[in-house]
Amino acid sequence: MSSSIERGQVYWVSLDPTQGSEISKTRPCVVLSANEINRRRNTVVIVPLTSTAESVHFPLLIGVPSAGAGSKARSEHIRNVDKTRLAKLIGQVSDSDLNEISRGVAKVLGLKF
């Protein structure tokens, strides 16, 4: 995997194997970790996307229109993955969508944002 992975990019990511209620399969995920960390580490922090018909429910399910119609981020499924799990780069979310995802994750983790 290239060292040019950047915050806000969307990749197909293989999330299996999983256990219990963890989000599974290969799905689009937004890179959330900072660019400096992405350049220096073999892992990245991601937030999976879903196209579930379930309505947006901040902070757990956040609308991400820049990732495609009906796309939503599952902020409670934030995860650190090895870069080898990243397959194909498929896009980039907007700054405003990235900010909303960040706010959602901060809320899930009990951080002030």
Please explain how this structure is put together.
With 113 residues, this protein is α+β, with helices and mostly antiparallel strands. Helices cover 19% and strands 33% of the residues. The protein contains two helices and seven strands. Strands 1, 2, 3, 4, 5, 6 and 7 form a seven-stranded antiparallel β-sheet that branches. A hairpin with an 8-residue loop joins strand 4 and strand 5. The protein is globular and about 35 Å long. It starts with 8 loop residues before the first strand and ends with a helix.
What proportion strand? 25-35%
Percentage of residues assigned to helices: 10-25%
Specify the overall morphology: globular
Q: First CA to last CA: what distance? A: 31 Å
The helix/strand order is: EEHEEEEEH
- Provide the low-confidence segments as ranges: none
The total strand number stands at 7
| Structural class estimated from helices and strands | alpha+beta
Q: How confident is the prediction overall: mean pLDDT?
A: 94
Number of helices: 2
Radius of gyration: 13 Å
Q: What summary fits the major beta sheet?
A: 7 strands, antiparallel
